[in-house]
Amino acid sequence: MASCRPALGGEAVRLTLDRIGHAFLGRAVFEDLSLCLAEGEVVALVGPSGCGKTTVLQIASGLIDPLRGRVQRHYRRQAIVFQEPRLLPWMTARDNIAYGLAVAGVPLGRRRESAERRAAEVGLHRRDLDKYPAELSGGMRQRAAVARALAIDPEMIYFDEPFTAVDVGLRRVLQDLVIGASAREKFSALFVTHDLSEAVRLAHRIVVLSGRQEGLVAERVLDGAPGSRDDGAVFETVQDWAKDPAFADLFDGGREAA
Ligand SMILES: Nc1ncnc2c1ncn2[C@@H]1O[C@H](COP(=O)(O)OP(=O)(O)OP(=O)(O)O)[C@@H](O)[C@H]1O
């Protein structure tokens, strides 16, 4: 299945995966996978455990090269938010958030101002910014990781199951942060998750990766903007898709957290 149909219409294409394939140790993960993301579009990539979602994200972001196919990135700045916050333990929260700006040579005053603004956007208090990662809660660390990603004003953000390890209430808060930031800043995002409810809440479009090396097996464009769907609408959508054979892999084995 070729999935090059940006949901928003008319926007520039930010990312193209053209018939990519990958294998580890001679064992195929997926073949012939094509996907495009438009400017400002949030695409959720879902699929059962081990089907290759992280591998697709790593190829798209350039962390690894595909064995076959072509990747085209039409943007200048990207950020990646991982499942673990991956903050540098010897730096304060403020310096972690500003890290990408420091690498880019942004002067100290400007990067501090930017880190503090981004921290406020993700709900971190000013008093927490002088703390080291070990002094922050898990939720605060993940907020700092999102702030660090936003700080470089990326045109593309890759999210690799970023909220799987946080509790349900905080997960919603962090999802809302992403929804708000993407509406405000118009970055594109590839959001890997095995939680279909999360995908339905925050994406414009959902693509399903097969658990049997068949590549993308389904695609759904969601109605309305992310954030406009209430809990009832999300629940109904997930229930409808549970009956759809294209989503069978996701529900087999009971991994879906509806
Ligand atoms: N570096 C590696 N070396 C060997 N095999 C690997 C490597 N990375 C991933 N794999 C294998 O490739 C397959 C796809 O892994 P991947 O992490 O992309 O799946 P996933 O869909 O993200 O899984 P999950 O939802 O459980 O995180 C799995 O069978 C995995 O064991």
From TrEMBL:
UniProt xrefs under SMART domains: AAA
Matches recorded under InterPro entries: AAA+_ATPase, ABC_transporter-like_ATP-bd, ABC_transporter-like_CS, ABC_transporter_ATP-bind, P-loop_NTPase
One Gene Ontology term of the molecular function aspect: ATP binding
Gene3D superfamilies assigned to the protein according to its UniProt record, in alphabetical order: P-loop containing nucleotide triphosphate hydrolases
Keywords on record: ATP-binding, Nucleotide-binding, Transport
Residue span, ABC transporter domain: 15-236
Family: Belongs to the ABC transporter superfamily.
Protein name (database record): ABC transporter ATPase
Species per Swiss-Prot/TrEMBL record: Bosea vaviloviae
Organism placement in taxonomy: Bacteria, Pseudomonadati, Pseudomonadota, Alphaproteobacteria, Hyphomicrobiales
